[in-house]
C-alpha cells in the first residue's frame, strides 16, 4: 500500500495526549484531524486553539475522516476505558496506536480484531524511542555483537516496568529464554521497603531487577523515586543508561597486566588501553522542560512512523506484533511475581539543583537569576531557560541570511545611524549566529559590541564568525548572557533585540526594560524585532525558506500552535530537511532535524507600554516582522 497523502490522525485524550498532538503536528506525513475527549473546558479550549473538531464519543466521528487514532487514555489495568475505545476504533476500520500499559489479554484481543478488520494496531511503550534510550539500545547491540553479555542490572518504578522489558529486549537483541525467581521477603522489623528485587534470566543473560514497588494511583510519575536505569556488563566493560533521559555511560573494563613478580605493568607495549577514560559520558543532559517539548514528542513520532510503515506494507498484525506480545507476557509474569504494589500518597517532592550539592557546579541554562548590578535585594523574576536553538544552529544562516540581508540588517543599521558610540557599547541581546551583529559592526565601524547568546550551538557559530573577521575580532565580545538577567555595562549607547522578547514573560520583560532604561545613554536607542503574530494562533506547516549548498538542498518548515498549558503563549516548531539537490521535489530527505520553543506573541503597542520609552515603527521588508526603534526622547 502506497501512502501519498498525510495520515489523518485522531488523538484520544488531552492529558498525556498533548505530547501526541505535538508529535502529529511536528512530523511530516500526518495531519491532526480531531480530538476525542470527555468535553472538559480544557479539551474544548485545546480543540478550539488547534482549529480541529472535538468529539466526545466514537460514534460522533464522521466516516472516512480519520485514518489513524492515538488512544492516550488509560486501559482497564489503569482504571480507564482506553482498550474499549481502541477496539471500537479498530472495528470502524481505523488504525490504532495505543499508549501502554495494556493487559496481555486485551492486547491479544486488539491484535486479533485488527487482523479481522485489515487494519494495524500497535502498543506504544514510548520510552524505547526516547533519544537517550535509543542511543543506549543501539550501543548495546553493537556491544553484544563484540562481547558476550555477563549480566544485566536494571531498576525501574513499577508503573514503567512494561517499557523496561521492551528496552532490555531491544538492547540484548532477544527476550528468550526468560525466567524469574520469587523475590525474597523483607523482615517485618525492617520497616517499609520501597524496592523489591527480582533475580532471573532474560534473553539468556543473568538479570538483577530492582523495582520501586510503591505507587500513588493518582500521580504515578511525580512520586517515582527514579526512572529507568540499566547496566549491561561484559568482559569489555559496562554500558550504563544513567536515566531514561540520559546520559549514557561507557566504563571500559579495568585491567592491568602483571609481570613475573605479580606487579602491575603500567607502561610500555601492551598498556595502551590504560589511556582510556575510566568512564565516557555520551550525550548531553537536558532540562525537564526540553524533555516535554522535544524528547517525548520526537519519541512518539518514531512510534507513529513504525505504525505508518506497517500500514504502508500491509503487515499481518498478528505476525508483526509477536515481539510486542512477548514483551507484554514477560511484563505480566513479572507483575505476578512481584504482586500488587504498595499504595502510597506522599507529599509533593522538593527537587534539588546540582549546585546545592556541588557549590562549584554551573549549569548556564538552568542556573538561578543573578542579583541586580547594584547589589540590592532582587525582585527579578525566575530564571529563563535558554531557548533550545542548538539543533537549529547548523542551518540558521542558510535560512536567516536572506531575511537579515534584506530586512533586519538594513533596518537596524538605519535605526542606529548617527548614535554616539562613545557613550558605551552596543549590546546585541540574543545575537544568534551573529548575522545582525555583523550588520551593526559594518554600519558603525567605531562601535564596541557585546554579543550575548545563551544557546551553545548558536554561540559557537557566532564565535566562529567573530574569529574569522579581524575587524569583528577587535570589537566584538561574545558572552553567554541570557535575558533578562545578563550582565550589562553601566552605560550603553544602544541595544538590539531581534527575535528575543517573545521568549520572556511579562515580568521578565518589565525587569529587562527597567535595566535597559537605567543604562541607555540620553541619546541612545533600542531596536526591537518581533515575530509578526500578535496573538496565539495555529500556524500550518509552511516552507519558509529553501537554500542550496554544494550537492544539497535545504528546506526550513515552520508551524505553531497555542500552548495548551498557557493561553498567552505558543509552541513553535522548526523542521530542517536536507535533500540531495539532484533529486526531484517530493524525494525523501537525507536527514531531518527538529527544533521547538515557546513564544509569547504580542505587538509593538505592548512594547511601547512595557518599555517606558518612545516607540517609533521602522520600515523593513514588505510582509516581514514588525520592527521599532525606542528612545528616551522623541527624534525629529
TrEMBL record:
Residues 7-123 form the Gfo/Idh/MocA-like oxidoreductase N-terminal domain. InterPro entries: Gfo/Idh/MocA-like_OxRdtase_N, Gfo/Idh/MocA_Oxidoreductases, Irp3-like_C, Methyltransf_25, NAD(P)-bd_dom_sf, SAM-dependent_MTases_sf, Thiazolinyl_imide_reductase. Residues 346-386 are annotated as: Disordered. Residues 426-524 form the Methyltransferase domain. Residues 374-383 have a biased composition (Low complexity). Residues 148-251 form the Thiazolinyl imine reductase-like C-terminal domain. This is Gfo/Idh/MocA family oxidoreductase. It comes from Actinoallomurus spadix. The lineage of its organism: Bacteria, Bacillati, Actinomycetota, Actinomycetes, Streptosporangiales.
